[in-house]
Amino acid sequence: PSEVTDAPGAPALVVTSTAFEDGGVIPDKYTQKASPTAPSIPLRWENAPAGTQSFVILLHDLDVVSNRSLTDSLHWLAWNIPATATSLPEGVPNVAQLPDGTVQITHRNTIGFVGPGWPGPTSYHHYTAELFALDTKLSLGTTATRDEVMAAANGHILGRAALAGRFHR
Predict the structure, then answer these.
(1) Which residue in 64, 89, 93, 108 has the most C-beta neighbors within 10 A?
(2) Whose CA is closest to 15, among 93, 96, 130, 121?
């Protein structure tokens, strides 16, 4: 992604969850341990930069590299979240496009959120939810890939925030 420059004196964009604290353990309720169709993690954010036109959420497992793409494991990607939004609730429906125009995918044969599922019994994997504030809406269809979304966002990022969680079975 592009370099982010905050306006002088402007508070930083922040993303949080009522489900866990930054760096904390993600409750089983939101993971594949509970269910293959676990509900999405509730997210809240504040201090959107001036000029924000839309948001992107990227949830990925930083400890896994896919043999197919040589990138970490994507668990949720949502874009064109309206600039007026300040949160995503628990259990966002797993549909390609929400009524508000938000589009979502994962890299698997699933639309929407896929909970953490690392099968290792002793080591934690680190899952990061990144929030990007963009100065535009992305002109991409519901079949866009992660690479296409991030390439389209490049040069339009006004602010970025991250929330990290850990999980193991």
Answers:
(1) 64
(2) 130
